[in-house]
Amino acid sequence: MGNLQVTALKCEYRTNPLGIGAKHPQLSWQIESDRRGTLQRGYQIIVANEVGDFTKPVWDTGYMESDQSIQLVYGGPELLSRARYHYKVKVWDNLGRESAWSEVAWWEMGLMDQGEWQAEWITPDESEMDPQSEPAFLLRKQFEVGGDVLSARIYATAAGVYELYVNGTRVSDELLAPGWTSYPTRLQVQTYDVTDMLQRDGNGIGILLGDGWYRSGMGFENKNFKYGERRAALAQLHIQYKDGTEEVVATDTTWKASTGAIQYATIYHGETYDARLEHSGWSSANFRDDKWCATQVCTDVSFDVLVPQENASTRVTEVIRPIAYFVTPAGDHVLDMGQNMVGRMRFTVSAPAGTRIELKHAEVLDKDGNIYFGNLRPAKQVVTYIVKGSGPETYAPYFSFMGFRYVRVEGFPGQENGLPLDAFLGEVMHTDMEPTGEFECSDTRVNQLQSNIRWGQRGNFLDVPTDCPQRDERLGWTGDAQVFISTALFNYQGGPFFTKWLHDMKAEQRPNGGIPFVVPDVVGGENSAAWGDAAVICPWTVYQYYGDKRLLAEQYESMKGWISYIRSQGDQEFLWNTGFHFGDWLALDAKENSYIGATPVALIATAYYAYSTRIVRDAARVLGHEEEALAFEELYQGVIQAFRDEFMTKNGRVAAPTQTAHILALVFDLVDDEVRARVAKDLNELILDNDYHLSTGFVGTPYLCFALSNNGYHETAVKLLLQESYPGWLYSVSKGATTIWEHWDSIKSDGSFWSDDMNSFNHYAYGAIGDWMYRKIAGLDMDVTVPAFKRIHIEPMFGLNRLSYAKAAHTSLYGRIESGWQVDQGQIQVTVRIPANTTADVILAGAAVGSVKEGGNSLDTLIPGIQAISEVAQGVRVLLGSGDYTFTYGNSDLFRVTFNEHSRIDDVLDHEVATAIFQKHMSSLFEGPFLNFVRKSTIKQLGENTMTGVTKQQIEGLLEELILI
């Protein structure tokens, strides 16, 4: 029993979540086993009440014969508001073993019934304080505890952002609560456990209340009060005593109000803090508030929009120190954090009262070495601190965040002699998502790219998936989110994050099914192809990663609504050729002075029309809506045919001669098998003719390397990845980037910048290349017919002489998956880890059964965990159960499939090395045709254009020799 364990119990994706709102929570667990090939055959879940007495369970499934170990829906009696439930799990496996009970985990319900609210929305009395004043509000109340406390919870939220204090201590490390939602329809409520913070001899409770997204000038109009003119707070403290009684302390007009040290705080512009205006001990019981203002009830915000917290909270997740201090040619004193980050600076200072210190944040330096603020546009990103003068003082902003690597410091005492690095800390802020993905390879530049992808996600996943964290935007652009979501979910646990954001998208959806450009919507535009399609692609991708059928069902009507909107456009049911579209945004083949690429927007719109219709068809099947699935299948086939009629020539070519047009035709399966090879060849030609450079924008780039690798041109894809000159992913790396740029040439080769109008150095969309790196280079993928990595697909596509190893890992809901490979002196080694209760198809490219060993044993022997072996076109297919495996085989056969009849030699070989090898072996190249052509550049030293007398065996031998060089 000790060798079969149930671990990592999760409820709603989280460990022991407090204050959830799901009436039927979903439970998951992982299984640890010391035996290969372990599968769950049955389980038992027991749920107990708040006391945790499992002899009197609330719900006991008994033995359930099932292999399901994720997203098990609670099926017991109705859950009570504010109640805590304990649960434990045991499993039985296919090897006849029964586990011990897991450790006990719990979840606690939030305030579920709006009728339970006794609190009132409060704001300072407008007759005593201007409700639109810039300083943050302080709200407080004193109260007594009437007995021995068993438990105490505060349920709180705000129209604005807030921090909560009890008896002078901050209640939580959460930042910028309640986050940004579609405020008119949804406002999250946080739950805090304050049991250990209450005291018998009087208590104080305080709320620090700022503007946040609610009142800041979000969007492009530079206009405040986007959602409302008044900040307001709502809080309700429930105290349960050991004698069974309960007391409630709630916001009402008995609370007092004042302003304090925070004189100004907005999302875009920063914060001003005058420490001389602090109210020491303001949230303590014995604080004198007789000179504070009264409060009044605020009727601007409804109770009907309140929902328990869905997303993980924003927190400081890492602290980094500046790596350097320097004075610029312009004379500015600047700190270098060594990493483009999102968050805030914390510093400690001793100075006379009234000393004014200013920090202004920027992402890069210009070519002269001066700090560059141009790309911030109107956003100020300035933090101002006015010293109190009482000794060492430490400060970091409360209600703002910045995107930056460099910080200009003014007014710090003694800075003319240099800034003390140990006085400053960078606090990295983002939604506190659990890291789940890793990738590494033999090219350090690509590893830096992976780091840039992760940092870009961290900086832009701050409560909503924003487009940038520094300028006057920071909006939830739907198109950016949908192209990046798969990469995002590989690297971080994004279930709660996207659940919350998709609920907002559904709330913002127009009555006709249209989808705004940004969610939450503070811009007003809507309905561009590839942007609105986020309503379909995002919930489906979440389902693929996590098997979350409930979220899929919740979003299904929204998904259908988007398809209905598209179908109603124009006068051709199966084409989308009307309306405004962003097209292939920022593509390099755009006309001068245009951001929209050369690929026809109607082609892109119709391609996405087909893709989203197919997804909705598949979602209908998953949810059991068979008749609707048939209807969407009919629509899907109609759109495909319309695409072919409109955008393909009679000879089977894509009519638009752009990379993106060919990419979409391939990855969205808009061409049949007979035409596919020709389209793929044409795409490859477009890349080669552009000297292995891309010309794609937001639409084409995420799928470019997939289109190549999946159609026989993996080496072209690898060369694109490794392209260091502009435009390419490693160009920014060569320029010192530590996050993903918005433009391929945000910094040009001469050191100048792209236009200030739109030039973010932290813009995650092009980081979508990560998805291809993990799935194709490392080979870690899923079987798309079975969600959540229940059936894993591992098929590394080796980088030949360009990469010598690669590895990736992903922590799925079932557990940790690993896929790695290395090539060394003619041998290939593939390592695999498969978690319990899953299986995997592993493709060993170019191998033959007789040449493969696992753990030193030949495959023709009985090896535990290996369920089936077969030879396929790519090499050897091995069906695995759970466990760790190491496969080794010679690589001479690898190129039998990689270097095939339509591959160009320079797709596989470095030009100079290829030329040298062919010169060395020219006299032996005489038998039977293998290749029909070779690029002239490859064999330029031979003075020949073609070689037709090369046998397959000779080419393979030469390639094997190449690996050994």
TrEMBL record:
<feature type="domain" description="Alpha-L-rhamnosidase C-terminal">
    <location>
        <begin position="785"/>
        <end position="855"/>
    </location>
</feature>
<dbReference type="InterPro" id="IPR012341">
    <property type="entry name" value="6hp_glycosidase-like_sf"/>
</dbReference>
<dbReference type="InterPro" id="IPR008928">
    <property type="entry name" value="6-hairpin_glycosidase_sf"/>
</dbReference>
<dbReference type="Pfam" id="PF17389">
    <property type="entry name" value="Bac_rhamnosid6H"/>
</dbReference>
<dbReference type="InterPro" id="IPR008902">
    <property type="entry name" value="Rhamnosid_concanavalin"/>
</dbReference>
<dbReference type="Pfam" id="PF05592">
    <property type="entry name" value="Bac_rhamnosid"/>
</dbReference>
<keyword id="KW-0378">Hydrolase</keyword>
<dbReference type="Pfam" id="PF25788">
    <property type="entry name" value="Ig_Rha78A_N"/>
</dbReference>
<protein>
    <recommendedName>
        <fullName>alpha-L-rhamnosidase</fullName>
        <ecNumber>3.2.1.40</ecNumber>
    </recommendedName>
</protein>
<dbReference type="Pfam" id="PF17390">
    <property type="entry name" value="Bac_rhamnosid_C"/>
</dbReference>
<feature type="domain" description="Alpha-L-rhamnosidase concanavalin-like">
    <location>
        <begin position="329"/>
        <end position="419"/>
    </location>
</feature>
<dbReference type="Pfam" id="PF08531">
    <property type="entry name" value="Bac_rhamnosid_N"/>
</dbReference>
<feature type="domain" description="Alpha-L-rhamnosidase six-hairpin glycosidase">
    <location>
        <begin position="436"/>
        <end position="777"/>
    </location>
</feature>
<dbReference type="InterPro" id="IPR013783">
    <property type="entry name" value="Ig-like_fold"/>
</dbReference>
<dbReference type="InterPro" id="IPR035398">
    <property type="entry name" value="Bac_rhamnosid_C"/>
</dbReference>
<dbReference type="InterPro" id="IPR016007">
    <property type="entry name" value="Alpha_rhamnosid"/>
</dbReference>
<feature type="domain" description="Bacterial alpha-L-rhamnosidase N-terminal">
    <location>
        <begin position="148"/>
        <end position="318"/>
    </location>
</feature>
<dbReference type="InterPro" id="IPR035396">
    <property type="entry name" value="Bac_rhamnosid6H"/>
</dbReference>
<dbReference type="InterPro" id="IPR013737">
    <property type="entry name" value="Bac_rhamnosid_N"/>
</dbReference>
